[in-house]
TrEMBL record:
<dbReference type="InterPro" id="IPR035976">
    <property type="entry name" value="Sushi/SCR/CCP_sf"/>
</dbReference>
<keyword id="KW-0677">Repeat</keyword>
<dbReference type="Pfam" id="PF00084">
    <property type="entry name" value="Sushi"/>
</dbReference>
<dbReference type="InterPro" id="IPR051277">
    <property type="entry name" value="SEZ6_CSMD_C4BPB_Regulators"/>
</dbReference>
<protein>
    <recommendedName>
        <fullName>Sushi domain-containing protein</fullName>
    </recommendedName>
</protein>
<keyword id="KW-1015">Disulfide bond</keyword>
<keyword id="KW-0768">Sushi</keyword>
<feature type="domain" description="Sushi">
    <location>
        <begin position="27"/>
        <end position="88"/>
    </location>
</feature>
<keyword id="KW-0732">Signal</keyword>
<dbReference type="InterPro" id="IPR000436">
    <property type="entry name" value="Sushi_SCR_CCP_dom"/>
</dbReference>
Amino acid sequence: HSLCVPELRSSVCGNIISVCVPELRSSACGNPGVPPKGILNGTQFNIGNTIRYRCVTGYVLDGHSLLTCVLNTGNMAIWDFPVPICREVCKRKHNHQPLCN
């Protein structure tokens, strides 16, 4: 879709033309949420904003730590990557078998 807005080109000639620009469906991605055992740094969720994820001690991030709100080809505001998850860091017993999956 395109949004057409009349624009006054010249007050002397009185010409009015329509300027068509792609319709922006959303200017915000919204809060993507926080995964279990995760920490979200960032409070702005508009186009161009960046947020950062990390995990609490004992957990490691699986996915992208940095997400940016961007426009997709349909002019929708979306995060450039999915929300990461936090996985438990496995400690090893003496026989080198992990204590967690």
